Amino acid sequence: MTETARAGGSSAVLFLASAVAFLAGFLFGYDNIVISGAIAHLARYFRLDPAAVGWAAGCALVGSLIGSALAGAIADRFGLKRALYGCAACFALSSAGVWAAASFPQYVGWRMIGGIGTGAASIVAPMYIAEIAPAKMRGRLVVLYQLGIVIGILCAVYVNMRIEISGTEAWQIARGWRWMFAVAALPAIVFAAIIAFSKESPRWLMKTGRLAQAHSVLAAINGESIAADEAASISRSLAQEHGGSRELLDGPYRRALLIGFALAALSQTSGITALLAFLPVVFQSAGQSASNAFFQSVLVGIVNLVFTMLAIWLVDRAGRRTLLLWGIAAQTAALVIVGCLYLSRAASNGILAGVMAFVAGHAVGNGAVCWVIISEIFPTKVRGIAMSIATTAIWIFAYLAAQFFPLMQSHLGTHGAFFVFAFMAAIDFLFVLLFVPETKGYSLEQISRIWLPRPTLDKTL
Q1: pTM, whole model, 2 decimals?
Q2: Which of 79, 197, 219, 443 has the CB geometry, 3.0–4.6 Å to 227, for a possible disulfide?
Q3: Whether 161 contacts 298, CB under 8 Å
Q4: What distances in angstroms separate CA 335 from CA 2, 280, 342, 418, 447, one per listed residue?
Q5: CATH topology of domain 242-461
Q6: CATH class of 9-199
C-alpha cells in the first residue's frame, strides 16, 4: 500500500499523473533520437547537400526553443492539462505529417511542430507532476519524466534497427525512414487518452479561484484529513505571491530564477547531449569498427537507463543536492580519465568504461535531479514562466555543446574536447556546492519561502 493510500487518498490519481509525466518524457526521448536512424535515408530521398542535412537534423530544435519559451505562459493561462493536450497533438501531427511529407519544406515544418511539442513537454510535464505529487514522493515521481526520456531513446534506437533490417536500401530511402517517425503516433494517442482521465493541478486550480475543484483533487491525492491543511498552506502561499515577472527579475525570487537558469545551462555544458549525439563517432575515433561503435552505444544507453532507475530510488532518500554533487563529481573524473586515455592512445575499452561512467554520473545527478529542482524551486504564481526561462537554457546550451563538439575535436583533438567538458563539469560542481539548497521533503510552498528576505525551510509553515 502506498503512502497516499494509507492517508486515505487514491493511488490511481498519482498513477495517472505519473503515467502522463512518463509518456511525455518517452515522446521527448523518442522524438530527439529517431532522427539518427532516418537522416541518411531522407537526405538521399530529398537530395540534400551537407548544409541541408544539418538543417534536417536540427530544425526540430528551433521548434523546441519556441515550445519551451511559450509553454509556461500557456500553462499558467489555460491550465496544465490543456497544455499537455497541446503537446500530444504536436507529437501526433508531427509523426503523421513527416510520414506523408512530399517535399523537404513540408518535412521541416512537421518536424518543427514536433519540436514545439518536445519543448513544451520539457516544461509542462515536470511542472505537472511536481504540483500534484506529495512532498515525500515528489522527487521520484518527477524523475519518472527523465526515465521516460531514457526509455524513449532506447525505443527509438530499437525501432530504427528493426526498420533498417526490414527492407531493401531502395525501400529505406522511399519509405523506411518515414515509418521511423510514424511509430511515435501511437504513444502520442495513448498519451492524450491518459491526460483525459487525469486530474488538473490543484495549485493551478487554486490560483485561478477554483477552490472546490482544487480541494477535490487534494482530497483524492492525500485524503480528506490532509487536504484541508494542504489547501490552507497553498492559499497562504498564493496570498504572499504577486505573480508578475517583476517578482522574478527584481523581486525576492530573482535568486531562484538565476539558480534555475544556471543549473539547467550547466547540466549541458559538460557535454552530455553532444556525446550522446556523436557516440558512434567518439568510439570510432578510439579505433572501434562501425558495428562495434553501434553496439557500444547501446551499452551506454543501458547504463543510462539503469542509473536513472537508481536515481528514482535515491532522490527522496539521499536528497537532490547530494545526488547532484556525487553525480557531477563522477562526470568530472570520468571526463578527465577519458581525455587522458585519448591523449595516451590507450585501449578503447577503457574509453568505453570512462564514457559509461560519465553517463552514469549524469543519469544519477544532472539528468534526473535537474528536472526535479527546476520544477519545485519557483512559487506557484510564476512557476510556468520561470520554468520556461530555465528550461530554455537546456535547449540553448545543448545545441551549443553539440554544435561546437566537432569543432573542438578538429582544433583541440578529441582529448581536448573532453578536457573542456571536464572543466565545465568542475564549474557545475562548484556552483551546486555554493548555491543550490537542499529541498528534499519540503512542500512547494515551504520551498518558495527560502527566497524571501528572511529565508526559512521550517516544515511547520
Answers
A1: 0.75
A2: 219
A3: no
A4: 40, 17, 11, 6, 33
A5: Growth Hormone; Chain: A; (1.20.1250)
A6: mainly alpha
